[in-house]
Amino acid sequence: VYSRMYGYDIVGSEWNKRKLLIEVLRTVYDMYQGETYIQMYTGISKEEIQKLKGQMEKVEKRLALQFIDQKIKLLPYTIAILLKRIKKGNLIKDPYHIDYEELSDTKEFEAAEILIEEAACIPKEERLFITLQLLTSNVLSSQFLRDEETLELKSSLKDSLALFEKKACITFKEKEKLLQKLVLHMKPAYYRIKYQLTTNYSIIKKVSEEFEAIHYIVKDSLKPFETYIGCPIPESEVMFITVFIGGHLINSGETIQLKKRAVVVCPNGVSISHLMEHTLRDLFPEFYFYEALSIREFEQSKADFDMVFSPVPVQTSKHLFIVEQFISDFQKLQLRQRVIQTIFGLNTSVVNIEQLISVIEKYAKVDQKAQLQKALQDYFSLQVLNETSENQEYSLADLITPETIVLRDQVESWKEAISIAASPLLHKGIITEAYIDKMQEQYPSMSPHIVLRLNVAIPHASPEDGVQAVGMSLLKLKEGLLCGEQKVHFIVVIAAIDKKKHLNAMLQLMKLAEMNGVINEMKRLNKKYKIYEIIKTHSI
Q1: CATH code of domain 148-251
Q2: Would you state the pLDDT for residue 136?
Q3: 468, 426 in Cβ contact below 8 A?
Q4: β-bridge partners, 288
Q5: pLDDT reported for residue 368
Q6: Which of 31-35, 302-306, 349-353 is least confident?
Q7: Which long-range contacts (CB under 8 A, 24 or more apart) does 246-250 make?
């Protein structure tokens, strides 16, 4: 701030002033003859610095580590300036920033005592702040730290590396060696991030350009570490991890090709969006897919992508492909042809089933044209819908059983239909009343977006809205409910706890909804176990 009487002054908390001070110190030190400027303007003598360097050597021995060259030169000035501020009475007055229990039992807290052994009456908060300077310093160590905290840190980083391998479709060579390096780097980074002491490293921005192909995968794979640390990871820290992983891949002779990046946008619930994402991931293995986004999330997203898949138009300057939420196998072929031609300029041949049947009818009598058309579509499809991944646990028959089927002639309204359809799950404790309220709020009427093939409505909400376990329940209405001009006779309530466990059952339900003959047979049935037998037959 500026005043005519006092000129310029820096205002704010002592904590934030010190963050600025340390940042300025680091910047000046990197200038030509920067150390000379620091000595000139701070009044710190060479003797003081030499003494602190000697104390830091004691710290290295106490902690069984070695400071990197830059830190062994810069840290003495940091400590000297902090001691000056403490001596002048410029103390930290907001100790809520610092977790005493977390820092006071560290080796670094003990070592900090060496650095301030000659300074009298230093408050506890100041000792902790100096401890932080040691904890947030990059070090080189021959001894791998193995305390309980480090084991938890290691576990979260191990999960992040596994996620990276899955997303990048690679397997790290010497993975344990990479993990140990990351743990050694990320222990000080943990405190930098948690106490908001991270610096924007401009040099890393240049380095990260070399690893553009993996940087966005790294960002997308750090959720386990982010969950452990309890706060978002700054971009500069993500860049450091990118350099670690990119360097390791280069040293081990591996490379990651820069894939085209895709975003799936879905205006409806979590189950439908994840089903869309799963379908498109299978259809386009050559693309990297971010997790499915709602329209609001998409509008706020800063992700760098090359194309967007959405059932509704969205504002974007990138390639936009309008795709139905539930597409048949033949529609998948058509979509793939369109996307590959647009993105890569390649033409692929798609068999026109109508034309093929016309040719067949010239030379043979076709009694069941619709069934033949469906069989040919399945035959020429690249992906068979019921080829599901190994980690999908539940089949449709596991979730929809005679106990979760309800039969009614009619209902008064769509709202009542949701309540009745959800009642078996409510009675079993799979969902709460709040979940039913949320579905009714989210879908005040039967939207076509949640109706599979105009045959099965699938109302649902998010897991956090009141889901206790995975489940599905089915309401069959003899009279049906109008959705536009079509009557829907089946309502399946979906309760999902994550995006995987129910997906196999969802895929089977989607396949079942395409079978008009089977759906018509189920409409005529009035026994729960008979409906279940049909579901069981089509849950393979």
Answers
A1: 1.10.1790
A2: 64
A3: no
A4: 261
A5: 84
A6: 349-353
A7: 246/210, 246/211, 246/214, 248/172, 248/174, 248/177, 248/178, 248/181, 249/170, 249/172, 249/214
pLDDT tens readout for residues 20-65: 888 898 889 888 888 889 988 988 888 888 888 888 787 777 766 6
pLDDT tens figures, 402-435: 999 999 999 999 999 999 999 999 999 999 999 9
SS3 64: coil
Q: How confident is the model at residue 399 (pLDDT cuts 50, 70, 90)?
A: very high
d(C-alpha 21, C-alpha 1), whole Å: 16
Q: Where are the domains of the chain?
A: 2-140, 148-251, 273-385, 396-537
Give dist(CA 143, CA 184) in Å, integer.
10
Please give the C-alpha separations between residue 442 and each of 415, 436, 451, in angstroms, as whole numbers: 11, 10, 14
Cα–Cα dist 106/183, whole Å: 16
Residue 383 has pLDDT above 50, yes or no: no
Cα–Cα distance between 503 and 499 in angstroms, integer?
7
Q: Tokens 């002048």 appear where?
A: 88
For 287, how many CA atoms within 13 A lie in the half-sphere containing its CB?
26
Return the CATH fold of 396-537: Mannitol-specific EII; Chain A (3.40.930)
For 139-160, what is each residue's pLDDT tens digit? 444 343 445 667 888 899 999 9
Whole-number Cα distances in Å, 363 to 62, 271, 359, 376: 90, 45, 7, 17
**pLDDT for the residue numbered 437:** 94
Q: What is the pTM of this model?
A: 0.41
Contacts of 464 by beta carbon, 8 Å cutoff, 6+ apart: none
Paired with 293 in beta bridges are 265
**Cα separation values, 18 from 35, 73, 74, 103, 235, Å:** 19, 19, 15, 19, 22
SS (H, E, C) 209-234: HHHHHHHHHHHHHCHHHHHHHCCCCC
Neighbours of 503 (CB within 10 A): 22
Sequence-distant (6+) residues with CB within 8 A of 12 are none
Could you count the other beta carbons within 10 Å of the beta carbon of residue 362?
A: 6
User: How buried is 253 (Cβ within 10 angstroms: 0-12 exposed, 13-18 middle, 19+ buried)?
Assistant: exposed
pLDDT of 380 strictly over 70: no
**CB-CB neighbours of 220 under 10 Å:** 17
Would you place residue 99 in the very low, low, confident or very high pLDDT band (cuts 50, 70, 90)?
Answer: low
Nearest in space to 127 (alpha carbons), one of 112, 106, 108 = 112
Q: How many CA atoms lie within 13 A of 513 on its CB side?
A: 25
Closest listed residue to residue 432, CA positions, set 506, 476, 495: 495
Cα gap 109→264, rounded to integer Å = 48
Q: How many Å apart are CA 254 and CA 248, to the nearest integer?
A: 9
